[in-house]
Design a protein that fits this description.
single chain; mainly alpha; globular; 6 helices; two-stranded antiparallel sheet
Length: 142
């Protein structure tokens, strides 16, 4: 059985991630999209194309709500629907050029705030941080 101390540290870490995300994204203008639509675009930006069910699971939303939000994003020209080349019955969603430009603009604003947070790190600490993030990605967040 794993040490519960490690689990408690993980829970504290996840909570801190939520707080840091909220802090770094505060004041970001979302240009006529809702926060949930932004989260869908953000998810697609780092992991596309995706099926509606994968988006629904990630956003912890019902399929009807996910479908509605995806339809709105298509209407706004920020994402597009395509057929899976291996299974024509399956729908996939990805960002359009406009959606990519919007997300890249938002990410650029968040990157400024991120760089402010890490500005005091020396080269070795930056490398350690990068290695820690890679380890977390490989072992916990895969």
């Amino acid at each position: 059985m794993q040490d519960s101390t490690l689990f408690r540290q993980f829970i504290g870490f996840v909570t801190s991630v939520h707080h840091a995300t909220a802090d770094m994204s505060s004041g970001i203008r979302l240009d006529n999209i809702t926060p949930i639509q932004y989260k869908i675009l953000e998810y697609l930006a780092v992991s596309q194309p995706q099926t509606p069910s994968a988006i629904s699971d990630c956003m912890q939303m019902s399929m009807p709500n996910t479908s509605r939000e995806l339809r709105k994003l298509i209407e706004k020209g920020l994402c597009e629907k395509l057929s899976d080349p291996n299974d024509r019955r399956k729908q996939l969603f990805r960002l359009t050029t406009d959606g990519t430009e919007m997300i890249n603009g938002i990410f650029a604003q968040i990157e400024v705030k991120f760089n402010e947070r890490i500005q005091g790190l020396d080269t070795q600490e930056q490398q350690e941080l990068e290695q820690a993030l890679q380890l977390l990605q490989r072992k916990v967040f895969y």
